[in-house]
Every structure is written in C-alpha cells, then in structure tokens.
Amino acid sequence: MREITLSKAVNEAIAEEMRRDETVFLLGEDVAEAGTPFKVLSGLVEEFGTGRIIDTPISEPGFMGMAVGAAMTGSRPIVDLMFGDFIFLIMDQLCNQAAKTHYMSGGKLSVPLVLRTNMGATRRSAAQHSQSLHALVAHIPGLKVAMPSSAYEAKGLMKTAIRDNNPVVIFEDKLMYQDKAPVPEEEYLIPFGVANVKREGSDITLIGTSSMVQVAEKAAEILAKEGISAEVIDPRTIVPLDEAALIESVRKTSRAIVIDEGHQSYGVTGEIASRLNEKAFYHLDAPVLRMGAMDVPVPFSPALEDLTVPTPEGVAAAARKLCAGEMIHAA
Amino acid sequence: MAAKAAKPKTNSEDYLRMYRQMVRIRAFEDNANQLYLSAKMPGLTHMYSGQEAVAVGICEALTASDKITSTHRGHGHCVAKGAEFREMFCELLGKEEGYCRGKGGSMHIADQSNGNLGANAIVGGSMGIATGAALTAKLQKTGDVTVCFFGDGATAQGLWYEVMNMAALMQLPVIYACENNGYSEYTKTAEIAAGSLPARAEAFGIESFTVDGQDVLAVNDLTQKLVARARKGEGPFFIELMTYRYHGHHVGDINREYYRAKDEEAQWKTERDPIVNFGKWLESEGLASSDELKSVQDEVHADAEAAVKYALEAKYPDGSEVDMHVYAA
Ligand SMILES: Cc1ncc(C[n+]2csc(CCOP(=O)(O)OP(=O)(O)O)c2C)c(N)n1
Ligand SMILES: [Mg+2]
Questions:
Q1: CA A53–ligand 2 middle distance (angstroms)
Q2: Residue of A301, A305, A307 to mutate, testing the B interface (most B Cβ within 10 Å of its Cβ)
Q3: Closest chain B CA to residue A84
Q4: Interface pTM (ipTM) of the complex?
Q5: What distances in angstroms separate CA B279 from CA A39, B9, B269, B272, one per listed residue?
Q6: A88 to each of A93, A129, A287, B282, how far by Cα in Å?
C-alpha cells in the first residue's frame, strides 16, 4: 500500500469531502495561499477557490462564532485553528454555543462543524504553543473529540468528522505531520467510538492517544525483549470512547497504563483509569496507572521540556513494576 | 501624580545612544538568525530587523519603571527597554542564566527588571495586560506609562476594542503602539484589515497618530510628547507606526515570494533602512563621524559575539527546575 504523510492524509480527506459535498467550506488564518504554517492545506485553494477556502484575520472567537452560525443554517464548516493553544480564545463559541445548541433547542437545531487543531510538546515552542488541551473539550457534553495516531486515522477520522452532525474537534499532533503511514487509495471512513488494537498482548494493556500510541508501541517492544507481553490500544476518539474494547483488553491482561499528552491532573488518563476501575475492578491485579504530561506549563528549554512528556522508557519502567507486583504509589 | 519626564534627546550623546541601541537590536537578530541556521537554537524565532526605529524611538522616551508589553517579535523591544545581550542569548538557547531561566525562550523573552511585562506568543494577548498595568499606575499614582506593542495583525483581535473602550472611559496612561509592518504572517495587511486603523481608535475618542516607523527621531519626538501627556492623565493614545520586517515571518520562512516580492524587500532595505538613514543624518548634522559610527558597530558586534559564545557554553537549567515557578510562594 502507498504511504503518505499525516499532513497529506488530512489534505486528502478535506479535498474528498469538499468534492462530495459542496456545503463544506474551510476557514482560518493563512489557510488559502499559504496552506497553513504547517503546509497541511497546500493546494486546496487552487481547487476550491477562495470562496470555500477562506483566509480570515486573526480573529479566532469571531470566525469560530461565524462557523457555528453557518453550521446552524445549512453549511458544514471546517474551522482551522492554527495552534491548539488558541482554543482558549474560542471557548465560549465552542463550549457555550456550538456544544449546547442542539440540546437547548430540544433537538431542533444542529451544529455540524469540524474544528481541526493541533497538540503536542517537544517542538521547543514554549508554554503558549505546546499544549495538549483535548481534555478541556472532552469535558463538555455535546462535543466529540478525535485524536488520530497516524496518517491512516487522520484521514478516516477527518472524513467521518465532516459527515457528523455534531461539532467535532480533531487534535492532530503537530510533530507527526511529516510521519508516513500506509493509507489506501480507495475511500474509507473510520467510525467514531471504535478503538483499534495496535498490538496484542497478555500481561498488560497500554492505552495511548495520539502520539502516545507510538510511545506505547515502543514501550511494548522494550517489554517484549524482557518477556512481558503488552497489548497496545488506541481509542482513536475519546468522545465517544470505546469503553467496551478497553474493558475487554484489561479483563485479559489484568493491568493497564493510560498514556496521554494532556496534563495528568483532571485529564484523559484519569477518566479512562477510573472507568476501568469502576467496570473491570475484579479483573485487575494492580491499580490502573495514569501517565500524562507533567502538571507544569510547557517549558522552552529542551533540558526541561523533555522531562514533561511520557517516554517509552518511562512507560516500560512503570509496566515492569506493575507486572512484578510492586506498588508504584504506596499509600 | 509624580511627574517623571524622560531626558529630552537634545544632545549628541542621546542621539548616539539611539543609534547604538538600533545597532544592538540588528546585531542581536543577525546572531540569532545564525544560531538558527547553524541549528544551535532550539525552535523558531521571529526577527525584529527592519523595525528597530520603532522600539528604540519609543523606549528611549520611557523611564526604566515605565512598562511595556511585547510580542512574539519581541527581541527589539527587549533590547530597547534596557536588556543585556548575555541574559538574552542565554534565554534564546534555553539556558539557566536567561532572563526567564530558559523557561520562556524567544517568544517570551523579557528583562522584567526594566519594566518589560513579557513577550506574548498569543497575538493580541498583551492588550489587556498593558491596560491593566496602566490601571495600576492610575490607582497607585505611580506616574508610570505603559506602552502596548502589537502588530497590524493583532488589530483583528476583539480584546483590543474592549480594552480601548475601558482605557478611554478611565483615561488610562497607556499608549497602544501598532507596528504596521505590512504583513500578518503570510498575508498583506490590506487583506486582513478593513477601513483605517487609527479610525478604529478614534471611534473610542482616543487621539491617534500615524508616524514613519523608519524614522527614529520622528518616533521619539511623538512618543515623548504623548508620554508626557499620558503622565498628566490625558491618555490613552494610539500610534500606528509604518514599518517593515526584513526577514520572513519567522526564521524558517525562507521561500516567501508567493506573498512578498523580492523587489519590495530590497527597496525597503536599500532606501528606508532606519539605521543607515539615521547614521547618515548624524553625519550630515556633524553629530558623529563615519569613523565614530563604525566603532559603535564594531563594539556592538564584538559584544554580541562574546555574549553568544558565553551563552553557547552556559549550562542548562537543572532538571529540578521543571516544576519550580508553577505557583508563586
Ligand atoms: C491568537 C493567535 N492567533 C494566531 C497566532 C499565530 N500567529 C503568530 S504571529 C501571527 C501574525 C501576527 O501578525 P502581526 O500582529 O502583524 O505581527 P508581526 O508578525 O507582523 O510582527 C500569527 C497569525 C498567534 N500566535 N496567536
Ligand atoms: Mg505585521
């Protein structure tokens, strides 16, 4: 199968859906001629014109609000938010407006829009350009949240998102734009709420989101050499969450670590861990561990920044202890 | 209110200082660019080169306790407000001795002890901060003035209109300084700004000015007058400074002919360079000889190189610093 970059996968998904449905349009800063700073959207304006690939001023709350209104009236906007960190600027439009309109209108209005943005540290971009803020959005009922872990997921999830009748937020890892993966030429969609077992194993389940799937896979390789068999699961969407698949895996392995690049406290790792504790408690041989990003603003200095995110070695070390029956956090 | 006036720039010493400060900014940026090109600098950075007369013209009209807020393109503001090369290069390289102990890097570089409240990586993110600093000045009668630097692109942020309204209602000592360098990332300003920028501020009853941002004396004269008036409670003010950035949006923005013509760049650099033109003026007025100007440049370049060398060898913060400073004691 051909291999393409995550960047190209996103580009293809948007182009295909724009060809298929002319109510789809895209807006954001420097999306047209510049094709975004990461060049993800290069070429789209040539095909679809500036009427459908719309450059905006640096007015995030404004264009997010316009997307909500457009979505309520028959359009299917894709909002391009240059950095995930800027989500704080659009929180009202996203969380008070887009997320609640369908419910508040008793199901009479809907907001079919996609917000595509990014996440991920270690790009040496400091505290306001490195955050992974998906948990904030996942906290708000009415919003769906997708976290592609490779080019394959990025394409399939984007196409599903564009066809969904709800506001969907997609977080792409900005360090993965140039990573290649096999992506079929033929059309495919990846349904929301269906986890993907990336690697089968029997001793411990490593649940990873976005780039943490690769961290989990690398940890599994390290562990395999030591005779520990790790299963790696990618939930692909955290809202909706494929709880059943995660529980099934943990029933088999009896141990789990949840790895995610959001801050550890009050985050995705805690949510998934507590669901496993509630629903698979009698199958567990050890507490479910959370491994999120350190609870600090992301520092600029490489010497500090690299300490803030989970690593394969760190995950392997924790897995080793869990499998040996050692207490990791003794009371 | 304690009236503070910056020293009037009437003698050649002050003019030479302005010249030197502009040369220092250019030298800092040239070295930063080299650090990027030789892969010695982590991440990206936005060069201030070309806009020196704005930062220097304005900051030379301020005292050390007057405040500024800076932007992603903030090295120039930082130098102009009194920062030292060593601590700046250390910050740029993520070293412990940097102004922010390596935690901020290029986009957050600031010498806090000289009234720099920080460089902001959120476009428009400092507009509230600057206005709030002016509120402190008013409430505590400090006599300080705050200058809020931002780009033309930032005028699209709604926050600006909220705080201008309040600053005008409260007559706060804040000067909104818009550096109109013609581009907002990869887009011409004309394509992202409807109508006129000064008219927007005027709609709030804020006195507005447009000035040649390549002319350090024009910038300085205007700012001195406005700072003096702001101290007397006659603020806020808005200045649009017409200027130009020499490099790409950031150091990695090399192939940029699709949005900006090479001829245009060459024209600004050869005809409107703020340092060259000010140097010529100093010579023609008999305030400095070309030898004197040359020796200023040589000194500054040697300083910059020594600071780079120092910063390259300086140590990174210890890992234990990673969770320091999350909360204030
Ligand atoms: C809220 C926000 N939106 C978008 C960006 C990305 N961005 C960084 S600089 C920039 C352009 C800013 O243009 P301008 O204000 O004119 O400043 P200049 O770069 O020209 O100095 C953009 C869009 C950002 N940092 N913050
Ligand atoms: Mg600009």
A1: 22
A2: A301
A3: B122
A4: 0.95
A5: 41, 16, 14, 12
A6: 10, 12, 33, 48
Contacts of A228 (CB under 8 A, 6+ apart): A203, A204, A319, A320, A323
Instruction: Please check whether residue A248 touches B, CB under 8 A.
Output: no
Task: Give the residue carrying structure tokens 């734009």.
Answer: A177
pLDDT digits (tens, 9 = 90+) for B58-71: 999 999 999 999 99
* pTM for the full predicted model: 0.96
Q: Do domains A3-182 and A196-323 have the same CATH topology?
A: yes
> Which DSSP string corresponds to A223-278?
HHHTT--EEEEE-SEEES--HHHHHHHHHHHS-EEEEEEEESTTSHHHHHHHHHHH
At A153, list the tokens. 């997921």
All residues of chain A having their beta carbon less than 8 Å from the beta carbon of residue B185 are 29-30, 34, 37
- For residue B82 the two structure tokens come to 């009194």
Decide if A123 touches B, using CB distance below 8 A: yes
Under an 8 A CB cutoff, do B108 and A300 touch? yes
Residue A328: per-residue pLDDT: 72
Is A129 part of the annotated catalytic residue set? yes
**What string of pLDDT tens digits covers the 329 residues of chain B?**
334 445 554 578 899 999 999 999 999 999 999 999 999 999 999 999 999 999 999 999 999 999 999 999 999 999 999 999 999 999 999 999 999 999 999 999 999 999 999 999 999 999 999 999 999 999 999 999 999 999 999 999 999 999 999 999 999 999 999 999 999 999 999 999 999 999 999 999 999 999 999 999 999 999 999 999 999 999 999 999 999 999 999 999 999 999 999 999 999 999 999 999 999 999 999 999 999 999 999 999 999 999 999 999 999 999 999 999 999 99
| Distance of alpha carbon A91 from alpha carbon A313, whole angstroms | 36
What count of other Cβ atoms lies within 10 Å of the Cβ of residue B161? 14
* A304 contact residues in B (CB cutoff 8 A): 94, 102-103, 316-317, 319, 321-322
**Nearest ligand to the CA atom of B181:** 2
B264: helix, strand or coil: helix
To the nearest whole angstrom, how far is the Cα of B13 from the nearest Cα of chain A? 38
A3-182 maps to CATH 3.40.50.970: yes
Among B124, B125, B259, select the one facing A34 at the smallest CB separation.
Answer: B259
User: What domains, with CATH codes, occur in chain B?
Assistant: 12-315 (3.40.50.970)
To the query of whether residue A226 is one of the catalytic residues in this protein, the response is: no
CATH of span A196-323: 3.40.50.920
